[in-house]
Design a protein that fits this description.
Layout: H1 3-6, E1 39-41, E2 48-50, H2 56-65, E3 67-70, E4 76-82, H3 86-93, E5 106-112, E6 118-128, E7 131-135, H4 140-145, E8 153-165, H5 169-177, E9 189-194, E10 197-203, E11 211-216, H6 221-232, E12 237-239, H7 242-252, H8 269-279, E13 299-303, H9 335-342, E14 348-355, H10 357-366, E15 383-388, E16 393-406, E17 409-420, E18 425-433, E19 442-447, E20 455-462
Parallel strand pairs: 3-12, 13-16
Antiparallel strand pairs: 1-2, 3-8, 4-7, 4-8, 5-6, 6-7, 8-11, 9-10, 10-11, 14-18, 14-20, 15-16, 16-17, 16-19, 17-18, 19-20
Helix pairs in contact: 5-6
């Protein structure tokens, strides 16, 4: 079935990594990109990402068949927390159980606003006794730290992370590191060395397949990346672009800020006042304190939902399927709001929706019928055409939100749809009423955008996560 894809991963030319990239990323003198091609960019071209390298269909099969590699969330903002009160601080602000946390283990750390919506979430590592690294929580975590006196130090910086997924990922890393990594349990990590540099190897991934992240100092990334590609070329390694990065979250069942929902931190007036005081409205970015507030021009809020305001993209962790992270036996910021939500009698949670193939074909058929207005096209891309502003000359991150119906009753909202060439289906994540979550339940998604011809597409509730080979299988939690 996939033989036409298996041999279409051309060896990656290592010589391209010795050439100057079109625009460096913030924190890098070089990015491992292309000299030409289709890019997605952000503020002042500080963060420039290839949308795809070869063909997005090939790339989307790589994490199933060989090995995908993605560097696009580098450099990542990292908060370094250390001191006698480090655990006490995390107990105050994380929904997680931070008392049962061993050194070398990762948790999906989540902070909330007082109204219970997700402010930040990201991998959080216990690197020593009373020592932690919190990824993608800055600058909100720095603000929370400022609210009380803690006997600890909280400082933010950046590191690189290289994400690898697929059946060949483990042997590629083992050859690059010169040692076995079979001892690393799921959501655990340990130190290793690649290309003469110290790295951290974490068993974890976004696609739902066997996956790893390699983390380290920004200045070391290029040497490490080149070594991984050199070894990986023998095993069909495939660089994936930003388009597939969005796709694999849908397959793997990982709702993500900026893709499926937005950080509610920008509604926290205390946080906004703190930002203005600390950073004096300097250049806004996730690395320098601006967070999402300064990046809203980068997003295209679209779809068929009645409310497309930024506030309508805030969700609590229960709705996003992250309730398993919550330890209800301790007090944390936003806890009462979650308890009120649970007691409300109307709760929603996340599912995967699988679109009806005949309805998909009907949308495509309408594009060629001269006797009718075509439906809004299913282009399956994660960006929209450029919008030009004072700060931004780049494609926009597409953030659609579609109404979901059961008959005439609106029962939820669905997010970005993605075409999975491996499963040969269009799927999407959706937050729907809990009484509609039964697998096999047939709903309808009102697909399209306002001002265009929209279509109700039949969509079956499927398992969440959708990937049939989910990475937790066979690995210790």
């Amino acid at each position: 079935m996939f033989k036409n894809y298996q041999n279409l991963y051309p060896p990656i030319d290592l010589a391209t990594f010795d050439q100057t990239a079109p625009t460096p990323m913030q924190g890098f003198d070089f990015i491992p990109g292309m000299n030409d091609g289709i890019f997605i960019g952000y503020y002042h071209d500080q963060h420039k990402l290839p949308l795809y390298y070869t063909d997005w269909r090939n790339e989307a099969c790589s994490w199933h068949l060989t090995c995908s590699v993605y560097w696009g969330i580098s450099p990542s903002p990292v908060t370094f927390l250390k001191g006698p009160d480090a655990t006490r601080f995390l107990r105050d602000v994380f929904v997680n159980n931070v008392d049962k946390w061993e050194v070398g283990q990762q948790k999906h750390g989540i902070t909330l606003t007082e109204d219970g919506n997700v402010a930040t979430h990201g991998i959080s590592l216990k690197t020593g006794e009373d020592e932690y690294e919190l990824w993608w929580h800055a600058p909100y975590i720095d603000y929370l730290f400022s609210l009380k006196d803690y006997d600890a130090v909280c400082e933010s910086g950046v590191k690189f992370t290289i994400q690898m997924s697929g059946p060949n990922s483990e042997k590629i890393i083992e050859e690059a590191a010169g040692e076995t990594i079979a001892d690393i349990a799921y959501v655990h990590f340990r130190e290793s060395h690649i290309a003469g540099h110290t790295v951290r190897i974490l068993r974890f991934g976004m696609t739902g397949n066997l996956g790893f992240e390699i983390q380290g100092e920004v200045d070391d990334m290029l040497d490490i990346y080149k070594k991984i590609i050199e070894v990986g070329n023998k095993c069909g390694i495939c660089e994936i672009g930003f388009h597939c990065y969005c796709m694999n979250h849908n397959e793997g069942g990982y709702p993500n800020a900026s893709e499926h929902f937005m950080s509610a931190s920008i509604t926290d007036e205390g946080f906004l006042a703190w930002q203005r005081k600390i950073f004096e409205n300097d250049y806004n970015s996730a690395f320098e304190g601006g967070g999402f507030e300064g990046q809203l021009e980068s997003f295209d809020f679209c779809g068929t939902a009645d409310d497309l305001s930024i506030e309508s993209y805030y969700y609590n962790p229960i709705e996003l399927g992250l309730g398993y992270c919550i330890n209800w036996k301790h007090d944390f910021r936003g806890k009462q709001a979650l308890l009120d939500y649970k007691a409300s009698g109307h709760t929603r949670s996340i599912v995967t929706l699988e679109w009806n193939v005949e309805d998909i074909i009907d949308v495509y058929r309408s594009q060629w019928n001269l006797d009718e207005e075509p439906y809004f096209p299913i282009d399956d891309m994660s960006y929209t055409p450029p919008k030009y502003t004072e700060k931004l000359v780049a494609p926009l991150m597409k953030c659609p939100k579609y109404k979901v119906f059961k008959g005439d009753k609106e029962v939820g909202v669905a997010f970005m749809h993605t075409h999975s060439p491996y499963y040969r289906r269009i799927i999407q994540l959706a937050v729907i009423d809990d009484d509609q979550r039964e697998i096999g339940n047939e709903l309808e998604v009102l697909f399209g955008e306002k001002g265009a011809r929209c279509k109700r597409i039949r969509a079956k509730v499927e398992k969440f996560p959708y990937n049939k080979h989910h990475e937790r299988t066979g690995y210790s939690l």
